[in-house]
Specification:
By secondary structure, the chain is mostly beta strands. It has one helix and 26 strands.
Length: about 280
């Protein structure tokens, strides 16, 4: 279950939102769904798990402290099940800090080593682009044991072959099959790596703001000895009761006592509200 909180983020050197918690930020929460549910407005979102994220017409950043950063671009669908990150459609950027199993269903499944990696998958066109941006990665076709070491600064353009609109397959031993894919390699002259500091700055600011607000609220609340509503010693609260206007006074024990009845007043509040003790006579 998503827990909406009033602060945002994490990473070494910053305040960590929670051990093992996922944190997500976005410039526009509208249209984004997590685990099938729309987001509600908040500076950021923290949750213990996620199985699916749909971005719609917005981008999102999601972090698992100490494991990886993930930028999810517009109109993208990703899933995360059994520690496997799946790109169903759309585009993502991954900055892995530990090994991460990555899959494009039916097409690829392999372990991303710590480093920067980007992927884009067009479900309708049955095409994929993989960018190895830092550190050599071993790419594998799903269900194929063979590895394709791919150096950093390399882009793989992949197009699936089809037969009558359906994927074409090569058949292997033990009744295994792999999709027929056409691959082209090209050099990325100057790979652009995302700076995670820009992802965490707003979180750090929101965290600091929350702390200040909590401290201010604690100071404010400490001076109130009566509750519902909050009142200081000798404060007065008025409320309508049985067609009459009643005044209560806050005593040293933190109780609303000294019930004083006045004649009916059209301005007397329906719920108990703090007012000047002589309000009814003014």
């Amino acid at each position: 279950m998503i827990r909406i909180i009033m602060v945002l983020l994490l990473t070494a050197g910053l305040v960590v939102a929670g051990e093992g918690s996922w944190v997500m930020t976005t410039t526009s929460f509208k249209g984004i769904k997590v685990n099938g549910s729309p987001l509600k407005t908040a500076p950021y979102w923290e949750f213990e798990r996620f199985s699916q994220i749909e971005t719609g017409n917005a981008e999102a950043m999601i972090f698992l402290p100490g494991h990886f950063y993930l930028k999810v671009f517009k109109n993208t669908l990703i899933r995360y099940n059994d520690s496997v990150l799946q790109l169903v459609s759309g585009r993502i950027y991954i900055k892995a800090q530990t090994d991460l199993v990555f899959q494009i269903p039916t097409f690829f499944k392999f372990t991303i080593k710590p480093g920067d990696f980007a992927a884009e998958h067009d479900l309708k066109a049955k095409s994929t682009v993989l960018d190895v941006l830092s550190k050599t990665q071993s790419i594998q076709i799903d269900s194929d044991d063979r590895e394709m070491p791919t150096e950093e600064g390399t882009r793989l353009n992949i197009q699936a072959e089809t037969v009558d609109g359906d994927l074409a397959y090569d058949f292997l031993l033990n009744d295994r099959k792999i999709p027929k894919l056409k691959m082209e390699k090209q050099k990325i002259d100057k790979p652009i790596l995302l700076d995670t500091n820009q992802w965490t700055a707003s979180v750090k600011k929101a965290t600091e703001t929350k702390k200040k607000m909590a401290k201010k609220a604690a100071v404010e609340n400490s001076k109130y000895i009566c509750k519902n509503p909050n009142g200081v010693l000798s404060a007065c609260a008025f409320v309508q009761e049985s067609g009459q206007c009643v005044r209560y006074t806050c005593n040293l024990s933190g109780e609303w006592t000294q019930r004083t009845i006045f004649m009916k007043n059209e301005f007397c509040p329906k719920t108990k509200i703090i007012k000047d003790c002589e309000w009814i006579g003014k």
